[in-house]
User: Fold this.
Amino acid sequence: MAILRGEPTDRPAVNFYEVGGFGVDPSDPDEFNVYRDPSWRPLLQLAEERSDLIRMRSAVRSRSWDPYRTLSGRGQSDDFRDLIQFHSYVEGEWHCTRVTIHVGGRQLSSTTRRNTQVDTVWTTEHLLKTVDDLDAYLQLPEGFFLEEINVAPLIEEDARTGDCGIVMVDTEDPICAAASLFSMEDFLMIALTEPTRMHRLLEKLAGPIYARTERVSQDFPEHLWRVYGAEYAAEPFLPPRLFREYVVRYTEPMVRAIRKHGGFARIHCHGRIRAILDNVCEMGADAIDPIEPPPHGDVDLEFVRRQYGERLVLFGNIELCDIESMEPTEFRRLVERTLHDGARGQGRGFVLMPSASPNGRQITARTMKNYETMVELAESFNL
Assistant:
């Protein structure tokens, strides 16, 4: 929290993102629990004992990224049970869930699948496929989108974490909620050619997100938030002018609500961010992640520190693919350069962090060694 407040620290922070962030239980016998594999235990222990922990939690569901949980949290009152149905089934190694919504004389359907080897969910069929589907979706009553907001688990997690780290509220923004309803190509086509419809969708989805943000920021004040989704409207997907239309316009109210109650808003945006950094600052954001280096991104960390470090806390900029594949001596040089570029000179602060985290069942010796290098070099770095 000292870094977020702009207070002096003796070294940069080092955080492993979802490792130590997600709530996992290596002893859970669930077949989908990849973290019960023995290879995960040293990495989880390293995160708990030597990283600067940031617990990622949501007030509406346990895993914010899970689209099944997102949909299943809606329309559950008796008034809407006839609108939405869920069907789970197994196809070989895949466990599948099909969601069907009946509205506007149309049947909208979405299918997701997962297997036991990777902690993720794949969407194989998106809910909205045409403009007619979107028009039908817009007819859903406002009550369908109401959520059960529970701040108590955040407060309890904060007490458990104590001085070992902080709790970060994890939430999507309206553009993420909208884009997730489509395949990427269909989303881009609608965003580019149907701006009126896209704004209607964003306005509809923004209401409950704003209500959630206001309630949680008030009842759980002075905490860090991760607001994700901005990358859907950044390059190379959409031009910068539409970032202002689809992100600044709808995410800035969230940032204001978070900061009104003493919180800190961290904007999560993969990919090419050079053209939208001014917009991120304009929204009043306190931090940005993961600041991916070229070729995944389009801006060097040293440039971001020099141009925006006084306004933003910088989280990044180690790529997961480098942690998993780079030879340890080469990786050490990469981390040394990253710490120098991110932490030297004037600025609010820097957190050494990967762009993502492993989600497979096994952690290799090389991956483990490279995580150890991140901790070692961050601990020994003098500001």
